[in-house]
Fold these 2 entries.
Entry 1:
Amino acid sequence: AQTVTQSQPEMSVQEAETVTLSCTYDTSENNYYLFWYKQPPSRQMILVIRQEAYKQQNATENRFSVNFQKAAKSFSLKISDSQLGDTAMYFCAFMGSGGYSTLTFGKGTMLLVSP
Amino acid sequence: GAVVSQHPSRVICKSGTSVKIECRSLDFQATTMFWYRQFPKKSLMLMATSNEGSKATYEQGVEKDKFLINHASLTLSTLTVTSAHPEDSSFYICSVSRPEAAQGTQYFGPGTRLLVL
């Protein structure tokens, strides 16, 4: 079974600064997908970024980028120029490439962006 | 705009009653929907995978007779919590995979907060 570990329960950053959230995972599969989801106080889950394991290039979405280290099974999220609206719970998630694969979530990291 | 809707957004019921939660995909057909449960300040736990026209696939430890799932159409899945008890109080979230989206990507509904008194 796959596991996803987020070792930082809480993180704080000041507005405009950069912060990195950590995520490691364990799997025996070679092809899979990794995700970062954001859950703000409204509790609506929002997809932040997606990475395909067979792609070596790190995914980026505007201020959000990942550092994907397949051999180390690490998938960290970097948020640049942090904004107050980035305050949320961030979940790292794993999905295998099989037809019946489902999402496995980490425990989450609460990010607080302060003025 | 929103891709997935849930109704109701919050519900309070008495212990022993049943509650139905609806999940709709708004602009596409979804053969597969997912139901999650989230306790306060905790992560999402997959309860079951809802398959249109067939029985749902439940995760280990989830009582299928208590959490009834019906996926009667390509745009609607329902979760019914039968004979609800206070320990069933939680936040329930559904998600859908869009056919044209990148593989593995799921879009989540806004969630339903259930409080059983």
Entry 2:
Amino acid sequence: GEDVEQSLFLSVREGDSSVINCTYTDSSSTYLYWYKQEPGAGLQLLTYIFSNMDMKQDQRLTVLLNKKDKHLSLRIADTQTGDSAIYFCAESDPGTASKLTFGTGTRLQVTL
Amino acid sequence: DGGITQSPKYLFRKEGQNVTLSCEQNLNHDAMYWYRQDPGQGLRLIYYSQIVNDFQKGDIAEGYSVSREKKESFPLTVTSAQKNPTAFYLCASSTLAGLNEQFFGPGTRLTVL
């Protein structure tokens, strides 16, 4: 299957911006997603971007998509301690409706 | 309230025993999924189902079995053939159209002693 890669760990100070990066392999994915996982819980959809877009902004979140380089990023402005979690990027499988391939996850640690 | 439930939250079993993890959804979703999560490896798809009485293997199906007799339910059995069953198991569901957002249950942590 496709490989979706992320760095494993990111540490930022409260109030700074966080940037979490992801590289994916399937250029025909329709949607790319960012999910958030709180400790010991399931995942929740944080935001998504349609493949024909370059950027999407949603309050403190900015998603950038570079299709040429197959690179996706999530920027969190004014990072808070409540943002500490694992963040997964995911790509849709164009061959199978609703199937997703998830990245390895990036653990974001917010320090005071 | 609509959502996905998984039970139990924690499960302990002796090596060599089969164990079944429950997943129920009342979102009227057609598709359901089972993932396994291990530290540093992200989520890996075990099985998925897009319609009742039909399911497909994911990337790591060996040692697992599923059934989909009802739309609402998608139980996962971890058999004794699974070589390393200790993990966090997540169930999800989604529609088959549009954004296909997957909704996740709270997970079951299985420990095999």
